[in-house]
Amino acid sequence: MARHGMFATRDVGSLISGTTEEGTRLKKAVSVRHLTAMGVGAIIGTGIFVVIGEGSRIAGPAVVLSFVLAAVACAFSALSYAELASSIPVSGSAYTYAYATLGEVVAWIIGWDLILEYGVSVAAIALGWGGNLNAFLDAAFGWSLPTAIATSPEDGGIFNLPAVVVVLAITFLLVRGVTESLRVNLVMVVIKLLVLTFFIVVAFANFGTGNFTPFAPHGVDGITSAAAIIFFAYIGFDAVSTGSEEARNPARDLPLAIIGSLVVCTVFYVLTVIGAIGIATPEQMSASDAPLAAALDQGAGLNWAAAVLALGAVVAITSVVLVIFYGQTRIFFAMCRDGLLPRRLAAVNQRYGTPARLTIILGVSISVLAAFVPLGTIVELVNIGTLFAFVLVNIGVIVLRRTRPDMPRPYRVPWVPVLPLIGIAFAVYLMADLPLDTWIRFVGWMAVGLLIYFLYGYRHSRLRGPESRRS
C-alpha cells in the first residue's frame, strides 16, 4: 500500500486507538436504549406524517406493500452498518468505514457528502418544524406566528424565527452533554410513539375494509414507484453509527440499536398505514398536507384529533433535528481529528465531554441557513447523499472481509458478498430515479470538496503528520 498516497487507508487498530487521545476523547455514556431511541428519533419524523399521502396517491391501498418494500431495501444496508459499527467503534460513520477500507480520498468524498447531507437535512427539518409549530398553534389555539418572522424572504417573510430557535436550542443541548441530549430524545421518542399509537388505536376502532378495493390500482409499477419515495421515510438509522465512540458496549449495542430501530419503525409504519387506509381513501389523504390528520378528520370524523397529530409532528421533528445534528457534529469531529479539516476544532470540552466549539460553529451556521435561505429542491441532495453512503458502506463490508478476514467482528453480515451486493443494487436503483439537476448539484458539491481536500486536507492529514512518520 502507498502509505502516504491519497488512497492510503487507516489501520482499524489506529482508528480505535485514536479515540483515547487526551483532548479529543469523548465520554462513553450511551446505552443501547439511548442508541435505539436515536435511530427511532431520526427515522420517525415528517416521513410518516406527510409521505403517506403521496405514497397512497401513487400506489393506492397497496402503499402498505410499498412501506414494506422500502424497509427491505434499507435492511440490507442496515446489516452492513451493524457489522462495521460493531467492528470499528469510532465516530464518523460511513466516513470512518471508508477510511479503513477504500482510502483517504474516498473517505473525504463521503465525509464531505455527509456534511452536506446532514447540514441541509437539519436546516430543512428545522423549517418543517416551524411550519408544524404554526399548524399546532392554529389547530389548538386558533393563533399562529406572523408570516414576517415565520418564513424565509422568498416566501414573503423576513426570517424564519422558529427554525432558528429550534436549531440554537438543540445546539445548547448538544454542547451540555450527550447523556442529557439523548435523555431528552428518549422522552420525545416516547411521546411520538404514543401519538402514533393513539392514531392506530383510533383508526382500528373505526376500521372498514371498503377502501382497500381496488388494492393495487396502478399495479406493481405503482408499488415500486411509491417505495422509491417512501424509502426516505426510513432514512436516519445510519445516524446511530455516529454514536459508536460514545457507546458503553459498542460490540453488542450498535447492531441491536441499528437493526432494532429499523424494525420498530417498520412495525409502527405498517400499522399506521393499514389504519389510515381503513378509515380514509387514498384520495382524501393525498389531497392534504397532513394526511394522518385528514384521515382522522374526514374518515373518522374526529376533527379535534388534528391538534394531537400536529403536536406529535412537532415533537417528532424536534427529535429528528437533535439526532441528525448530533450525527453531523460527530462526523465533522472525526474529520477534524484526522487532520482533513482544522484539528483544533476537534478539541473536546473537558467539563461537558463534547466537541463544544465545533458544535457551536455548526449550530450558528445552520441556524443562519434555516433563517434566510430557501432550500427548495436542494433537499433532494439529502437523498442522493444518503444512498451514496449506503453504497460505500456495503462495499466496505466486502473489502474488509477480503483484506482483514481475521479482524474481530462482534456482528457479521450473513452471506457476504450476496447481501451487501443486494444493498448496493437497491441504493443504485433508487439513485437512478433522482432528477438530473440533483445529480448536477451533487457533482458540483463533490468538485468543491475535492478542491479543498487537495489544497488543505491532503497536506494536513495525520497520515502525513509527524506521528505517522514516527510509526
Automatic annotation (TrEMBL):
Annotated keywords: Membrane, Transmembrane, Transmembrane helix
Origin: domain of life: Bacteria
Presence of keyword Coiled coil: no
Transmembrane segments: 35-52, 58-82, 157-175, 187-209, 215-235, 256-281, 301-327, 358-375, 381-400, 412-432, 438-456
Membrane topology, from the record: Multi-pass membrane protein
Alphabetical list of Pfam families matching this protein: AA_permease_2 (PF13520)
Any one GO MF annotation of this record: amino acid transmembrane transporter activity
UniProt cross-references to InterPro entries, sorted A to Z: AA/rel_permease1
GO CC list: membrane
Compartment(s): Membrane
Stretch forming the signal peptide: none
Keyword Transmembrane helix: yes
Protein name as catalogued: APA family basic amino acid/polyamine antiporter
Protein source organism: Actinoplanes campanulatus
Record lineage: Bacteria, Bacillati, Actinomycetota, Actinomycetes, Micromonosporales
